[in-house]
Amino acid sequence: MADTFSLQKVLEAFRSSMSENKEVYIKYYIAGWQELVSFMNSLGNVFSFISKDVVSKIQILENFISGENGSYYATIQSMVKYELENDLVDLIKRDSHPESGCRTLLRLHRALRWLELFLERLRTSSEDSKTSVMCSDAYNESLAQHHPWLIRKAVGVAFCVLPGRDTFFDVMNAGDHTQVVALLGESLPLIAEVYQITEDLYAKNNLLELP
Ligand SMILES: CCCCCCCC/C=C\CCCCCCCC(=O)N[C@@H](COP(=O)(O)O)[C@H](O)/C=C/CCCCCCCCCCCCC
């Protein structure tokens, strides 16, 4: 994907990630994340500890996709089946498979819920709404429950230097504010669907609390 961030590209990646029978292609799922990382990198060094974590998780999944068992990593569904059937997932504590595809994707999956909540707040925000408040409310409702105190504090500091709402709307490169709101309205159900499919799959296989 090209350099300039656009919400449309994120939308396209998540749209492409969904197959006709509602499986989720990992390749496009991580392409969506890659696009989001390019946006976060443009926000400055204070966010680099976050983007580094996302990049390392993308890399782990890319290595699986391009590895000798890559065909099993085509979709989240095929990955879960393959890793579980072959005992490749640490279920209780991190041990012989500390970086399985399942636990790595779970971290991005939880972050996708944050993204959904944040974008929904942005979509329905008013001119005087603060991005730091929208971001941290979405964070507290989702990812924060899975992060230790130190990370929560560091994230709180990063939220304080977030650009304002207008800048967010501009960097989405989707036209004027009305057009951005419309595109968000189109994107959110898609992101929510990808999230829910993954959530149901992980719940069904008892994978939602992987260490
Ligand atoms: C205008 C476009 C809309 C907004 C675009 C936002 C772009 C955001 C891009 C990425 C979001 C953050 C994704 C964070 C993934 C975190 C995964 C995670 O939970 N990792 C932790 C656990 O991993 P393991 O240790 O178990 O391997 C890890 O410990 C965390 C490390 C760093 C902290 C992550 C904090 C996430 C905060 C989410 C808010 C980001 C705010 C971005 C500003 C827009």
TrEMBL record:
Catalytic activity annotation: N-(hexadecanoyl)-sphing-4-enine-1-phosphate(in) = N-(hexadecanoyl)-sphing-4-enine-1-phosphate(out); N-(9Z-octadecenoyl)-sphing-4-enine-1-phosphate(in) = N-(9Z-octadecenoyl)-sphing-4-enine-1-phosphate(out)
GO biological process terms, semicolon-separated: negative regulation of interleukin-1 beta production
Record's bilayer topology term: Peripheral membrane protein
Homology family: Belongs to the GLTP family.
UniProt domain Glycolipid transfer protein: residue ranges: 26-173
Domain of life assignment: Eukaryota
Subcellular location: Cell membrane; Cytoplasm, Cytosol; Endosome membrane; Golgi apparatus, trans-Golgi network membrane
InterPro entries: GLTP_sf, Glycolipid_transfer_prot_dom
GO molecular function, one term: ceramide 1-phosphate binding
Keywords: Cell membrane, Cytoplasm, Endosome, Golgi apparatus, Lipid transport, Lipid-binding, Membrane, Nucleus, Transport
Protein name listed in UniProt: Ceramide-1-phosphate transfer protein
Organism: Carassius auratus (Goldfish)
One cellular component term from this protein's GO annotations in UniProt: nuclear outer membrane
